[in-house]
Write a structure and sequence with these properties.
With about 120 residues, the chain is α+β, with helices and mostly antiparallel strands. It has a single domain, classed as GTP cyclohydrolase I, C-terminal domain/NADPH-dependent 7-cyano-7-deazaguanine reductase, N-terminal domain (GTP Cyclohydrolase I, domain 2, 2-Layer Sandwich), CATH 3.30.1130. Helix 3 packs antiparallel against helix 4. A four-stranded antiparallel sheet has the order 1-2-3-4. It has four helices and four strands, in the order βαβαααββ.
Length: about 120
Amino acid sequence: MTGIIEIEDMEFFAYHGCFEAEQTVGNKFVVNARLHYACGRPAESDQIADALSYQTAYEIIAREMMKPSHLLEHVGKRILDALYLHFPQLEYARIKISKMNPPLGGKIKCTSVTLEK
């Protein structure tokens, strides 16, 4: 049995970007995660120890978001690698990272990078 956990619209203030101002001033980022995992055991046992803890997943994502990077692709890869390292029951993961109000010279809600593994 496969289950899907979605953690939506996580907000972080971080220092990702290629421009010096982005690394100094920082910006708001929104992250969405979709995690497919083998959930037969926790569905039967009703024990958190058997589940893919979305609290732990959030903590992993938050930790990686706090490490400055030039590229969102780099942040996304770190998040995916850390999730797969921690959760052996993970079968597929999709991470979308959005940089809000990017400094591109116009009014833009966000730019986003999505990685899947």
